[in-house]
Structures are given as structure tokens and as C-alpha cells.
Amino acid sequence: MILEAFTDRPSPAQLFQIFQSFSVAETEASKQAGTSYWATQAPPGSGRMAEMLEESAFWTEKLQEASGAVMAVFLGLIAAGAAVGWLLLMPSDNTEMRVSLARVVLSLLAFFLSSDVFGALAGHRSAARSICNIRLRLNAAQAGQAPIGDILILMVDYNAAVEAAPMTLPFLYKLRQKRLQAQWDTYLSNRPVATPAALRGA
């Protein structure tokens, strides 16, 4: 991201080491590359880097929110199913049926605890809030023409938030890609255009 923000390239020696660490062939990786992965049109400098960080934070925040919502719906459906089953079987005089239902409920509880579904739900929501806060700080930094040092601090905070966050659900990116891209494009089109001096952090 730093190299892209300043349109610089590593030395040939560093590029060689980077390519050697890849586990996918360059031709295959090129097929999956998004031509508009970064929507920023800002000139090289701290402003470009801040905008790229803000875009990345926007996507990560929304995908974390969506992952948390999916986990909440999943938990809600399981809880609703257990409640309905309990209400239907409790009036019954069949003791064995009651015992079986209790075992099912306990099994579900053990599954939730062992797979840390509750922890994942809390983690997704916490990550979305933290990244949203960083995104707003990035927006304010751009408006205030913050120097490169402030942008680097925000990048460190963003990396820490992403590393601490649980992985987003893998299918959500493809499901929400067009919608989120449209939202981001609308945001960019409505945002005031900064001057080149401001984008350089001058």
C-alpha cells in the first residue's frame, strides 16, 4: 500500500525475494487481479495513502459488520428453533421426549461454546466499531491536511485492528462486492475534491 501510494517500486533484489515467496504462479495471480482495486485518483503522497487506507477500512468495516450480522442471524435461528421445540414438547407427557430435547439443547450449547460462536460474534462487532473509528479519523486527517506521520500512525492502528479481528466469512465479499463498490463510488463522487497541495499533506 505504501508503494502504491507513492507510485514507487522495490529494488529488483527485493522484487525477486517477494516473487520467490509466492505460492501461486504470476500468470494465475494476474487473472484474479482487480483492475480497479484502488479507486483513488489522488496524486502520489500522503493524501493518496490516506484515501487508500480509508477505502480499505471501509470495505473491512462493512464485511466485519456483515459477518457479525450473519452470526447473529445464525444464533437467532438456532435459539428460535430450540424455543419452538421446547414449547411444543413441554406440554407432552412423554418423558423420553423431554429428555431427548434437553440433550439436544445441551449439545447445541456445547457446540456454541466449543466453536466460540459467541466470541466470533462479539469479535466481528468489536472489529467493525474499531475500524469505523479509524476510518473516521482518516477522513478527518484528509480534511485537515494531516502530515505523513499522522497517516502512518493511522496505518499502524488499522493494521493492528485488522490483525486482532476474526476472519470475515469468505462468501460475503462476492455477495456484497458490487453493492459496496457502488457505495464507495457514490461517496467519492460526493466528496469535495482536495487540491494537489492538500493531497500531498502540504
What would you say about this model in short?
The chain has helices at residues 2-5, 12-20, 26-32, 46-89, 95-115, 117-143, 148-164, 172-190, 196-199. It is an all-alpha fold and 202 residues long. The protein has one domain.
Structure notes:
- This protein is an all-alpha fold.
- It has helices at residues 2-5, 12-20, 26-32, 46-89, 95-115, 117-143, 148-164, 172-190, 196-199.
- The chain has one domain (2-7, 45-199).
- Helix content is 75%, strand content 0%.
- It is elongated, with a radius of gyration of 23 Å.
- The two termini are 21 Å apart.
Give the topology.
Elements lengths: L1 H4 L6 H9 L5 H7 L13 H44 L5 H21 L1 H27 L4 H17 L7 H19 L5 H4 L3
Helix pairs in contact: 4-5, 4-6, 4-7, 4-8, 6-7
Keywords: Membrane, Transmembrane, Transmembrane helix
Pick out its properties:
202 residues, 9 helices, mainly alpha, single chain
Main sheet, how many strands, which sense, barrel?
A: none
**Which regions are unreliable across 5 or more consecutive residues at pLDDT < 50?**
195-202
In the residues, how many domains can be counted? Answer: 1
The secondary-structure class comes to mainly alpha
Pattern of helices and strands: HHHHHHHHH
Distance between the termini: 21 Å
Radius of gyration: 23 Å
Instruction: Report the portion of residues in β strands.
Output: under 5%
Strand elements, count: 0
Total DSSP helices = 9
Q: Whole-number average pLDDT?
A: 81
Helical content stands at over 70%
Oligomer: single chain
Shape: elongated
